[in-house]
Amino acid sequence: MKIALFPGDGIGPEIMEQARRVLDVLALPGLVLFEGDVGGVGYKRQGHPLPQDTLEMAKAADAILFGAVGDPECDSLERDLRPEQAILGLRSALGLFANLRPATMFPGLEDLSALRPEVARAIDLLIVRELNGDVYFGDKGTRVLDDGRRQGFDIMSYAEDEVRRIAHVGFRAAQGRAKSGGKGRMCSVDKANVLETSQLWRDVVIDTAVEYPDVELSHMYVDNAAMQLVRDPGQFDVILTGNLFGDILSDQASMCVGSIGLLASAAMGETQGEFGTLGLFEPIHGSAPDIAGQGKANPLAMILSLAMLLRHSLGREDDAARVEKAVAKTLEDGIFGGDLGGSAGTAEIGDAVLQRM
Ligand code: NAD
Ligand code: IPM
Ligand code: MN
């Protein structure tokens, strides 16, 4: 079992250290760890946010654990050299098109949600976000118009096969969740009232639904979805959406649960078995430059990303559950940091998880 660790920038190395301690306790047989530079660190050490040896390491791995990238000192570099290209480059070079972003209420955390406890209590949803297309990967640039004004542009598009393959992932996820108490529902979120891209998305999702008569499909415009997510998040089971909308809605969902420092994610490729093997696992948050180096970052999203890695790429359900239980118990015992109104630091939260494992 080869796991590539890419800590990255800002709080990335701080939270990765805690995930590594969890890995040490698990003592997986035959585990080999590699470490590579990504992001601003990659640029500063090797002249590129995704150095060639990092990419080779990723391709050779069974799974990738990714911290975060983003460095304010790199924000004026040309776009191809910016830290964010590391994560975008890995997702596209490895064909990791299916982003699973679960948001579930942890027992005892209801009072810390940005929502009222009785509203927050019911949160148990999975955002299935497409990751290789949309406005992220279309033609982009800045051009000068005839009258001398500069104009920026980013083309939004989806090909039907790109929509179909992510729709299958969403439907299968809804079926899988139904087996363990899920609602068997999928809500596809788009902006079909305005965007052609979204109309095609909706048409293809409806076509694909024929293969999944047991899943209750609905559609929602993204503006309404943003509102419904705070009005009544308990109505959602699987949310299927595109790259941009999924990015925004997942940060929003994190505050419904209580903190962006709690939400983990998996990026998976073509399916083998249920979700495929090679995957990249990372918190949904970024490098948090405002708190980097202060030992304040919440490492739980990182540790929960490791749990997703154990489950989805290594097939080690028992180990994944062991880690997730220890995280839930840590929160239930009131051990959390400033992001949730507490006072525990990064290492202290890591210690608490290790003790509970
Ligand atoms: P961010 O997610 O880094 O931070 C947003 C806010 O949430 C900040 O106030 C931060 O302190 C807080 N926060 C985030 N993670 C936290 C944690 N684990 N514990 C406690 N608080 C936490 O988003 P941003 O500030 O918009 O972006 C910062 C940089 O990160 C940018 O360069 C951006 O491009 C990058 N970014 C990278 C990724 C990624 O690597 N996948 C994701 C999002 C943003
Ligand atoms: C995320 C991030 C990335 C995205 C950025 C850093 C490219 O916000 O993983 O959510 O937009 O996908
Ligand atoms: Mn994001």
From TrEMBL:
It catalyses: (2R,3S)-3-isopropylmalate + NAD(+) = 4-methyl-2-oxopentanoate + CO2 + NADH. InterPro entries: IsoCit/isopropylmalate_DH_CS, IsoPropMal-DH-like_dom, Isopropylmalate_DH. NAD(+) binds at residues 286-298. It is an enzyme of class 1 (oxidoreductase). The keyword GTP-binding does not apply. Gene3D superfamilies: Isopropylmalate Dehydrogenase. It is found in: Cytoplasm. Its cofactor is Mg(2+); Mn(2+). GO terms for cellular component: cytosol. SMART domains: Iso_dh. HAMAP family: LeuB_type1. NCBIfam families: leuB. Its main location: cytoplasm. Keywords: Amino-acid biosynthesis, Branched-chain amino acid biosynthesis, Cytoplasm, Leucine biosynthesis, Magnesium, Manganese, Metal-binding, NAD, Oxidoreductase. Residues 2-353 form the Isopropylmalate dehydrogenase-like domain. Homodimer. It comes from Aurantiacibacter atlanticus. The gene is leuB. Mg(2+) binds at residues 223, 247, 251. Binds 1 Mg(2+) or Mn(2+) ion per subunit. Catalyzes the oxidation of 3-carboxy-2-hydroxy-4-methylpentanoate (3-isopropylmalate) to 3-carboxy-4-methyl-2-oxopentanoate. The product decarboxylates to 4-methyl-2 oxopentanoate. Belongs to the isocitrate and isopropylmalate dehydrogenases family. LeuB type 1 subfamily. This is 3-isopropylmalate dehydrogenase. Pathway: Amino-acid biosynthesis; L-leucine biosynthesis; L-leucine from 3-methyl-2-oxobutanoate: step 3/4. Its EC number is 1.1.1.85.
